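Appendix B. Raw example, untouched.
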Amino acid sequence: MHIVRRAEAPGYTPPGHQDVAAWRLQGLQAGGPEKFAVAVSSYPPGAGAGPAPVPASCVYVVLDGEFTLEAEERTECLCMHDSVHLKAGEVRSIRNDGTRTATLLVVTDTYASAK
């Protein structure tokens, strides 16, 4: 068993993100699984990322708030407990257009990108 307490989770700055606070909960610098990583990101109003290709296959799960996601020539509003899978290289932008902080859980495939 590998436990990472939120207070001890390593913070990091995801490339191409503006005003986003992120913490690695499992995988990579947090230790634990070798084939995937789990992070949580906090987006205050106006914060976002992209447009840019995602470096590896990933899943976003909205834990709180709302996000505007643009990918594949579509714009979608993602609300609490909504999820989306993005393929490696898929160009996306995501932002918090709301009036309160929004929280995103990110699960990333680290195995395929390490090959």
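End of appendix B.
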